[in-house]
Amino acid sequence: MKIVTCVAPVNIAVIKYWGKRDENLILPINDSISASLSTDIMCAKTTIMASPLLKENKFWLNGKEQTFDSPRLRNCIKAIRARCDETLPQCTWNIAICSENNFPTAAGLASSAAGYACLVYALAQLYEIKGEISDVARQGSGSACRSIYGGWVQWHKGDQPTGADSIATQIAPADHWPEMRIIVLVVNDCRKKYSSTSGMKKTTETSTLIKYRAENVVDQRVKAITKAVMDKDYESFAEITMKDSNQFHAICMDTFPPCVYMNDTSHAIVNLVHSYNEYKKGQKVAYTFDAGPNACIYLLQSVVEQFISVVNHVFPKPADIDTVEYYRGL
Ligand code: 2P0
């Protein structure tokens, strides 16, 4: 019998992934960039047991048994097994997978990213695989390839039809910018109305703006934000982050029928951030929203205390926002 346990981080994109050029291999139409959060607050944890005594493969997610026939799960296992030394005994044994997230699943907090990254990393440990695995995590969920690494991470869209070059690389480790913090303002922790997968499919089928973004906007933003991260230039970083979030949601609105992920509270947070930045005479706080209403706020440690007190003043508990849930360095 062999047992492995791994944890993987949640990542929050600052240049968004939205739209695939290949649905099966999960190949994106543009590069994306994210930061991975520290795993001691928000993470996925997966334990896998391989044993000759197991009669069949088993999978539990957050304590609930799941079927083993999800094509994405099967693709990940198949791709990892293709890289393993078949003479290892565990290659012939059935496996039991137990995964859990310590944060709301499918509330736009990248649960599938951390979950698949963790699963693929744990499988790689189980089958003693060395080398690149972000391309396998990508086949579980696109954004999962970025959660294979800590710190600042770029997912390169790649050019090859096989997806071999559609991988993630680390731009800088977490300790490169130790003052950076992320606050997640949990507006709503229900499951989202439409999944990212179906939303982005509808976008690529119906939006004209998405093509403009992929061809004319993203590459230049990737270069500029990479430079901002490397130079620790917060103001440039903040402006690009907010503009990219806004463009992503504009494209969601350009989808037909539209994918509406942000709600009135989300927009109130946007207004609050801009008012705060105007008062401070510079970009001191940056929001970004994924496929849900929750706000992720990137800011420097020196601003955290004041900004949280402003949030608590404007959204007193227990009003629209449940609470300021987490804040943490990368
Ligand atoms: C991102 N999102 O870059 C963007 C921003 C949501 C909004 O990556 O179909 O769950 O599994 O590849 O990875 C969500 O997309 O979609 C996502 P699939 P995934 O973080």
Protein model, in words:
This protein has 330 residues and is of the alpha+beta class. The protein folds into two domains: 2-174, Ribosomal Protein S5, domain 2 (2-Layer Sandwich); 180-329, GHMP kinase, C-terminal domain (Alpha-Beta Plaits, 2-Layer Sandwich). The protein is built from eight helices and 15 strands. Helix content is 36%, strand content 25%. Strand 13 and strand 14 form a beta hairpin. The chain is globular, with a radius of gyration of 20 Å. It has a five-stranded mixed beta sheet with strand order 1-6-9-7-8. The protein has a four-stranded antiparallel beta sheet with strand order 2-5-10-11. It has a four-stranded antiparallel beta sheet with strand order 13-14-12-15. The two termini are 35 Å apart. The model has no long low-confidence stretch (mean pLDDT 92). Helix 1 runs parallel beside helix 2 and helix 2 packs across helix 3. Ligand 2P0 binds at residues 13, 16-18, 26, 32, 110, 112-113, 141-143, 196-197, 290-291.
- Mean of all residue-level pLDDT scores: 92
Counting DSSP H or I runs of 4 or more residues, the number of helices is 8
Ligand inventory: ligand 2P0
Instruction: Specify the oligomeric state.
Output: single chain
* Main sheet attributes: strand count, strand direction, barrel closure: 5 strands, mixed
- What strand order characterises the main sheet? 1-6-9-7-8
The CATH architecture of the largest domain can be named as 2-Layer Sandwich
Low-pLDDT stretches are: none
Beta fraction of the residues? 15-25%
Work out the helicity level: 25-40%
User: Cα distance, first to last residue?
Assistant: 35 Å
